[in-house]
TrEMBL record:
One of its GO terms (molecular function) is adenyl-nucleotide exchange factor activity. One of its GO terms (cellular component) is cytosol. The keyword Repeat applies. This is BAG family molecular chaperone regulator 5. The keyword Mitochondrion does not apply. Keywords: Chaperone, Repeat. Residues 54-125, 224-302, 344-390, 404-481 form the BAG domain. Residues 18-27 have a biased composition (Basic and acidic residues). Residues 17-43 are annotated as: Disordered. GO terms for biological process: negative regulation of protein ubiquitination; protein stabilization; regulation of inclusion body assembly. PROSITE patterns: BAG (PS51035).
Length: 486
């Protein structure tokens, strides 16, 4: 859709517009030998063609805006673009084609292009995923307003604790799971929401430890302490304002205004004479560091305009993760094909891949974190498969082995075979093979539940481990088919 916008003129008229210059039709190569009414190409200066060219220029301007708009239907920008596109559609409809087929075809294609942009704009602004992003963002806004912003504005104390941080983390995880279908506006909307929530989370997490500091110092210690204490009060208010800005809860303040306030605090602290007193210097340093921590989150107004930010397929960390996944896929195929169990070199490669993944820079991006976590699960799935196969081969049960313990090992043998099928599974949840695997794994869990340890401690431990192993296989199968995207 977006790519077509920039080729509208060519698709409409078959040749590029010459910028208004008069074309030379005097040459024989430009004139048909036997012109007819419908064969004669229309001169670019024809009133109808000129009007369509003007419409095309406006479409070329609006097209990129429509293709990157990530808001909702009630946004002012949406209404502006919808209004301008509707006006263009009316202008196209008013073009007089004089009953000529070529002009009618050009007008029809122009109308289809404008209608396509209108449809694309509406589809993205009302897409279920876009509404889900907004719903989660609203839940986060309400949470922060009730616990932080509103109490601070009322002169009270913000309620910042682990419960609040955990609730925000849950919302962030749910945002990462929203499908965008590769649509740029939806990717952009999800990225913007995640960026702001992660910034809020960082501000809150940075604030929590400072509540336990033995600050502020007594004003009798030094004359500069009273000034630092006053700045601390301002910083607390600025923190609340920043959270309100990040979550769209502030109608009057702006990032630029808050940035000026925080910068003035820094200047005020820098002007203090605290020489010769290490405790006060350290106190001022902590306040300055907190101000710097707030300032770094004030550049989010233009966040997400760069495609590389929200199109994670271009992200270097994602590329690293994808390279690891490709290597894991190659190793997994070899393991399943040859049933390798004691190949220490294969295990060493897998362990090195885990180390590599641990070193991937996620830049605190929850989507990259999730991509790395999933890659780690893929590596661990192959390692546990190799470990269990090796354990089954080396197992030498004693004659007096407890019957319940033997029953657990029988289930583990079945789980190993099922895990091989899960590792090689490359379908969807709607596939019959998926349902069969899920049912067979569930039956193994029921079989383990039916094992009676009869007081045997080793059987209890083995059964517990086997249950965890079966659940991990089910979780891995679920992960492989959840159609997660960056």
């Amino acid at each position: 859709m977006c790519a077509n916008v920039f080729g509208v003129l060519k698709s409409l008229f078959g040749k590029p517009f010459d910028g208004g210059k008069r074309m030379d039709h005097g040459g024989p190569q430009d004139q048909p030998q036997h012109p007819t009414e419908h064969q004669q190409p229309y001169h670019p200066q024809h009133p109808a063609m000129m009007r369509l060219y003007e419409v095309q220029k406006e479409v070329s301007t609006l097209g990129p805006q429509v293709c990157t708009f990530s808001g909702l239907q009630n946004d002012r920008e949406y209404k502006r673009m919808e209004r301008e596109l509707t006006q263009l559609l009316l202008q196209v409809d008013q073009v007089d084609t004089e009953g000529k087929l070529e002009l009618q075809g050009a007008r029809k294609r122009a109308a289809q292009e404008v209608e396509g942009l209108l449809r694309y704009l509406e589809e993205n602004a009302s897409h279920p995923s876009r509404l889900a992003i907004e719903e989660l963002s609203n839940a986060a806004r309400q949470l922060l307003d009730e616990r932080v912003v509103a109490p601070q504005r009322a002169g009270g104390v913000a309620e910042i604790n682990d419960e609040l941080v955990d609730a925000l983390q849950e919302i962030i995880l749910r945002l990462t799971q929203i499908k965008t279908e590769g649509r740029v506006p939806l990717r952009k909307a999800r990225y913007r929401a995640l960026t702001r929530l992660c910034a809020v989370q960082e501000v809150l997490e940075g604030r929590t430890p400072q509540q336990t500091l033995s600050l502020p110092l007594s004003g009798e210690t030094h004359e500069a302490v009273n000034c630092i204490n006053q700045v601390m009060v301002k910083v607390s208010m600025a923190r609340s304002q920043l959270l309100a800005l990040l979550m769209g809860l502030s109608g009057r303040d702006s990032c630029a205004h808050l940035s000026r306030i925080l910068t003035e605090m820094q200047v005020e602290l820098d002007a203090l004479d605290v020489s010769g007193n290490a405790a006060i210097r350290n106190y001022r340093k902590q306040v300055v560091e907190e101000i710097n921590g707030l300032l770094k989150h004030l550049d989010l107004e233009g966040e997400g305009d760069d495609t590389r930010r929200y199109d994670l397929a271009q992200n270097n960390s994602i590329r690293e993760i994808e390279a690891v996944r490709a290597h894991v896929s190659h190793l997994r195929e070899g393991v399943l094909r040859h049933c390798v169990t004691g190949d220490l070199r294969c295990k060493a490669e897998l362990q090195s891949l885990l180390t590599h993944l641990d070193q991937v820079d996620t830049a605190k991006n929850p989507c990259i974190r999730e991509a790395r976590r999933r890659a780690v699960v893929e590596v661990q799935a192959v390692i546990t498969f190799l470990d269990l196969r090796e354990a089954l081969l080396r197992r030498q049960p004693s004659p007096d082995e407890h019957p319940s313990h033997r029953a657990v090992w029988l289930v583990l043998g079945s789980l190993s075979d099922l895990q091989a099928q899960v590792l090689g599974f490359d379908g969807k949840r709607a596939d019959k093979s998926y349902m069969i695997l899920e049912e067979l794994l569930t039956k193994q869990l029921l079989a383990l539940d039916a094992v009676d340890p009869q007081g045997d401690e080793s059987t209890k431990a083995a059964r517990k481990q086997a249950v965890k192993f079966a659940q991990n296989i089910l979780n891995y199968l679920d992960m492989k088919t959840d159609e997660w995207e960056y």
